[in-house]
Amino acid sequence: MADRRRSVAENIPGDFFVDETCIDCDTCRQLAPEVFADAGDYSFVRAQPQNAEAERSAFRALLACPTGSIGTLHPACAREAKADFPMPLEGGVYYCGFNSPKSFGGNSYFVVRPEGNWLIDSPKFLPHLVDRFEKLGGVAHIFLTHRDDVADAEKYAARFASRRIIHRRELSAQPSAELVMDAFDPVELAPGFLAIPTPGHTSGHMCLLLEDCHLFTGDHLWWSRMLRSLSAGRDVCWYSWEEQRRSMAALARFAFEWVLPGHGERVKLPRDEIRKQLSALTDRMRR
């Protein structure tokens, strides 16, 4: 729980505050950019909410914060915002919320399908999410993009008897996974679900393409608010920047509209714009 006595100096006085336990994961800035901003190594309250919508967004950010670094004078109101998670995006795809410190605050997603629901990477294991997933039909499959973002996948797999999917090069993070991939070519895991190996950030990193529309990108690709473009980060590339560049170029062969990352901003763009931006990003990475 956030401690007002440890509040960062940049906070604008008012109901909401960020304390010095913030790890600068960007979760709050994605959910409530009108309230939270980046101080360099941590977030702070740039403006107190001015209307009900902004206040609700701030409460969502408080709940999603992996380290409990956001506080409020009215904590009881946060319980009402719990009902917003998992948060619907489009086409049966949800953002889970409740980001885990085990994945440095990485985002995770939930996909509802009649043939069996999917969890992409993992949020915290919490009774609220277990209950919501159960009411939405359970979790048949858990796709793990890479070692960094597995969080509580093992607990969800045990609770729902889920099939976990991970690349062999990432297996040390989830050694009891049910399906281990060895290929470095795209593999159809189920109708409409295509695993695309994208080594670079880590050696066995994978993206998941859902029905030529939603691309779950782990830590491979995201939207940069500052650059207003698709982006990747050499300073968070743990394996090979050149491999990541080649993986990025290969993504241009696929059609999709949504980029849904573990870390970084999600975005929906026209398919032609996605291809154009991927080409420009690959050129920047080469330089």
Briefly say what this structure is.
The chain is α+β, with helices and mostly antiparallel strands and 287 residues long. Helix content is 23%, strand content 23%. The chain contains 7 helices and 19 strands.
Give keywords.
287 residues, alpha+beta, Alpha-Beta Plaits, 2 domains, seven-stranded mixed beta sheet, six-stranded mixed beta sheet, 7 helices, globular
Q: Largest beta sheet, briefly?
A: 7 strands, mixed
For the secondary structure, the number of strands is 19
CATH class of the largest domain: Alpha Beta
SSE arrangement, N to C: EHEEHEHEEEEHEHEEEEEEEEHEEH
Unreliable residue runs:
none
CATH homologous superfamily designation of the largest domain = Ribonuclease Z/Hydroxyacylglutathione hydrolase-like
Helix fraction, binned, reads 10-25%
| Integer count of domains | 2
Mean pLDDT across all amino acids: 97
CATH architectural type of the largest domain: 4-Layer Sandwich
- Shape summary: globular
CATH topology of the largest domain: Metallo-beta-lactamase, Chain A
In words, what does this structure look like?
- With 287 residues, the protein is an alpha+beta fold.
- The chain has 2 domains: 4-82, Alpha-Beta Plaits (2-Layer Sandwich), CATH 3.30.70.20; 85-286, Ribonuclease Z/Hydroxyacylglutathione hydrolase-like (Metallo-beta-lactamase, Chain A).
- It is 23% helix and 23% strand.
- The chain has 7 helices and 19 strands.
- It has helices at 27-31, 52-64, 78-81, 127-135, 153-160, 241-251, 271-286, and strands spanning 16-18, 36-38, 43-45, 70-72, 87-90, 93-95, 109-111, 118-120, 141-143, 163-167, 179-181, 187-190, 193-197, 206-210, 214-218, 222-224, 229-231, 258-261, 267-268.
- The strands form 5 sheets. It has a 7-stranded mixed sheet with strand order 5-6-7-8-9-10-11, covered by helices on one side. It has a 6-stranded mixed sheet with strand order 12-13-14-15-18-19, with no helix packed on it. Strands 1-4 form a two-stranded antiparallel sheet.
- A hairpin with a 3-residue loop joins β14 (206-210) and β15.
- The termini are far apart.
